[in-house]
Design brief:
Elements lengths: L8 H18 L15 H16 L18 H11 L5 H4 L6 H11 L2 H12 L5 E4 L15 E5 L2 E12 L6 E7 L10 E7 L5 E7 L9 E12 L3 E2 L5 H37 L1 E2 L2 E2 L4 H31 L6 H25 L1 H5 L5 H11 L6 H13 L15 H11 L1 H14 L1
Helix pairs in contact: 1-3, 3-7, 3-8, 5-6, 5-7, 7-8, 7-9, 8-9, 9-11, 9-12, 13-14
InterPro entries: Acyl-CoA_dehydrogenase, Acyl-CoA_Oxase/DH_mid-dom, Acyl-CoA_Oxase/DH_mid-dom_sf, AcylCo_DH-like_C, AcylCo_DH/oxidase_C, AcylCoA_DH/ox_N, AcylCoA_DH/ox_N_sf, AcylCoA_DH/oxidase_NM_dom_sf
Protein name: (R)-benzylsuccinyl-CoA dehydrogenase
Family: Belongs to the acyl-CoA dehydrogenase family.
Length: 435
């Protein structure tokens, strides 16, 4: 069994190239007032396309996909290390061809799509000629998808969709949406829904508004209404009633990627607070001379390293077993831990920067809100904690301890006396006499 904390030299060279490329060329794009997903913007394409080509020339384009789809088919450990770098820059995911929700949508179509669906939707999506949206969450749905009410009913050789979806990311720029809708309301809870590809220009698709987060006034989280939206029968994705199984395929790896991108963001926050601590002077020295500041930096470093190792261990387990179900507990655990680590480090960074930290001249408040988003998106923290507990307790299913269990001190001592009756007794007596 191999257990190593080093990256092989060849891949490390790729990561080193990524680090400088993202810092020098990609990160500056985020300050130009252009959105990475707006493929209709000529200026955006003029700037992004050459960088995407550089990534392709390095063999680092869409590495989560197999070679048959133009990627490298990397496992989760390599993808995790890449996402640590990608997470620190707004345009990096789109430049490397691994932007959410397009990556997850591409995986769904690659795994479950028909040849016609792949030709019409997957190929241009992989080439970033178009972008897509995942239309799952509902205004009244909360964290339980079984509460969804958007319906899809068969109507001849079409499906007719009615309902509303909330936070369909990038719907305003999407060429198509993947919609999760109830098709079999009387089936078992997790077999009631199906997935459909819905072109954005289909009659009856209405973007009610685009909601902003991180303090944005003009956001990209689309509130979408579907009114008698008719799509051909061949726009069903996978099997009827298979939406839950499909969505888990989509979300498992994505949570690892989000976690490693969070590692990258936290690494930048720790760097910023450290620079501020050693350069900001007071009457008696620098901020770094104060024990309270030292505690903040030490806690941030410790939490970040623990979290990163946990995420990489989870990625390693996914690669080892090639079965997300076997790693479900750890995937849920890193998802639950992610917002706490992110928020703790962001708050410390804000505090060490003082009034500048809370101002709109620094990005740190956005990081704090992003941490809160991480505690809601892809399932709230509480749901993931419940999953962790249930998965963990499975191994104790057959335990029936008495009132005084075998691990009580009296029982452990009795067992010890059975195993070593004479020597232990003599030693105990001698010890009592000595006292």
């Amino acid at each position: 069994m191999a257990w190593d904390f080093e990256t092989d030299p060849e891949f490390q060279a790729k990561l080193d190239w990524m680090e400088s490329f993202v810092t020098e060329k990609v990160e500056p794009l985020g300050y130009l007032g252009i959105h990475p997903y707006d493929v209709t913007n000529p200026r955006r394409n003029e700037l992004v396309r050459p960088l995407q080509q550089e990534v392709k020339d390095q063999g680092l384009w869409a590495c989560h996909l197999g070679p048959e789809l133009g990627g490298q088919g990397y496992g989760q450990v390599k993808l995790g290390l890449m996402n640590e770098i990608i997470g620190g820059a707004m345009f990096a995911p789109i430049v490397f061809g691994c932007q959410a929700p397009d990556t997850g949508n591409a995986e769904i179509i690659a795994h479950y799509g028909t040849p016609e669906q792949k030709e019409r939707y997957l190929r241009p999506l992989l080439d970033n000629e178009i972008v897509s949206a995942f239309s799952m969450t509902e205004p009244q749905g909360g964290s339980d998808p079984t509460n969804f009410v958007t319906r899809a009913e068969q109507d001849g050789n079409h499906w007719k969709i009615n309902g509303e979806k909330w936070f369909s990311t990038n719907g305003k720029w999407a060429d198509f949406l993947i919609v999760m809708a109830v098709t079999d309301p009387d089936a078992p809870r997790h077999q009631r829904m199906s997935m459909f590809i819905v072109p954005i220009d289909t009659p009856g698709v209405e973007i009610v508004r685009n909601v902003g987060v991180y303090g944005q006034q003009d956001g990209s989280e689309s509130y979408v209404r579907y009114t008698d939206v008719r799509v051909p029968a061949d726009h069903l994705l996978g099997e009827r009633g298979g939406a839950f199984a499909i969505s888990q395929t989509r979300l498992g790896g994505g949570r690892v990627h989000h976690a490693m991108r969070t590692v990258g963001n936290c690494r930048k926050l720790l760097d910023r607070m450290s620079r501020r601590a050693v350069s900001r002077t007071t009457r008696t020295g620098t901020l770094a001379d104060y024990q309270g500041v030292q505690f903040d930096i030490a806690d941030s470093y410790i939490e970040l390293e623990q979290f990163k190792l946990f995420v990489l261990k989870t990625a390693w387990a996914i690669d080892k077993y090639n079965d997300y179900r076997r790693v479900r507990k750890d995937i849920a655990a890193i998802k639950a831990l992610m917002p706490k680590v992110y928020a703790d480090i962001a708050k410390r960074c804000i505090h060490i920067h003082g009034s500048l930290g809370v101002s709109n001249e620094m990005p740190f408040v956005g990081g704090l809100i992003a941490a809160m988003v991480m505690g809601i998106a892809d399932g709230p923290t509480e749901v993931h904690k419940v999953t962790v507990a249930k998965q963990h307790l499975k191994q104790y299913r057959d335990v029936k301890d008495p009132v005084f269990p075998d691990y009580s001190l009296l029982n452990r001592k009795a067992l010890a006396m059975e195993l070593y009756p004479d020597p232990v007794g003599e030693i105990a007596d001698a010890a009592e006499m000595a006292v």
